[in-house]
Amino acid sequence: MTQSVEIICVGTELLLGDILNSNAQFLAQELAKLGIAHYYQTVVGDNPERIKGVVRIARDRSQLLIFTGGLGPTPDDLTHETLADCFGVPLVEHPEILEDIARKFAQRGHILTANNHKQASLPEGAEILTNDSGSAPGIIWQPLPGLTILTFPGVPAEMQRMWREVAVPYLRSQGWGNTTIYSRTLRFWGISESALAEKVNSFFDLQNPTVAPYVNHGEVKLRVSARADSTAAAQQLIAPIEQQLRQIGGLDCYGANDDSLASVVGALLKTAQATLAVAESCTGGGLGASLTAVPGSSSYFWGGVISYDNAIKVRLLNVDEHDLAEQGAVSHTIAKQMAEGVRSRLGTTWGLSITGIAGPDGGTADKPVGLVYVGLAGPNGVQSFEHQFGALRGRTWIRNLSAATALDHLRRQLLIKLE
Length: 419
Prior knowledge:
CATH topology of the largest domain: Molybdenum Cofactor Biosythetic Enzyme, Chain A
CATH superfamily of the largest domain: MoaB/Mog-like domain
Distance between the termini: 52 Å
Family: Belongs to the CinA family.
Strand content: 25-35%
Number of domains: 3
Radius of gyration: 28 Å
Number of strands: 17
Shape: elongated
Mean pLDDT: 95
Protein name: CinA-like protein
Low-confidence stretches: none
Domain MoaB/Mog: 6-174
Largest sheet: 6 strands, mixed
Number of helices: 14
CATH class of the largest domain: Alpha Beta
């Protein structure tokens, strides 16, 4: 039977959404690097009975339970005492932990209080999982044959250091993590999840590597994961599958892993020794923000105009007042004129524009909320593209999708020019 891990995050603040559960994300990624099977994650509040209920379920389906949170000195920090109660053992105070806490407090000008004695009390038989950054130690404990429990504080920086410096060496010494799971994520724009899934359906039956689709903020991704003895070996398994998926995806596949549309467009502009200026209306600077988020973008992105008011479109972008009155700001004609205007005004190779109705108000029967036009002016002329993003997902969704889609239009044109 494959040994598996369960991550259990303790804290009512997590259930309330007051704190983002970054610990679970970190641990999941680390377990994948170690090649350790990980099938379940649980979040439970600061309640001993519910924590015990979670433990009873987890110990029957997983061989390694990783806890985060609930190790502090306050009354709602219940992880260690609840684990001790769950397995019927007493808590034992460790003087060396109190000495360590006192020393750390003295360095910071703090005084040890009675509450800190709680942090020095661990379930009988548990080893100390040292915490060099904070006051709360964790435990390494085998309360039953075939079951190991690791506990960590909820503070991400402390947990991550303890994981890398203490937990990983321990797990490797116990035979965990002798393989690795490596993943490559291919990124697609301009194709729906269902359309892409139909094209690559046969790949979903693969066992090693595996291929899985998912959607995030309008983007479709294919995650290709392989298990092997090393990262290099896993990469070799993934490489031919990635090549096939890229060929099937064609222009819709724009990159992998940490690539963004903005970074890919930037690289293409550099290759072409071209420059870009933008003119934005409904996105209010979002397009420029995504471009400048890429380090080194000043070498190809010269600037832009946020022409939110029609008067600015006329004064700065040379948009025709008659066309504005007759066709409206949200139209093919105005998108083209905005792109041409900013290209001419800033003297760049390319001009990219966005004009649309982000809502929630301002839509009509002819021009509903979510209607967006993208203009693209370049060495061979100007063109525009109409998109209907719909109103259901709201203003932010429309604005973000508009900026990404504009970048994608430029990306495709640059690829054609570079062929």
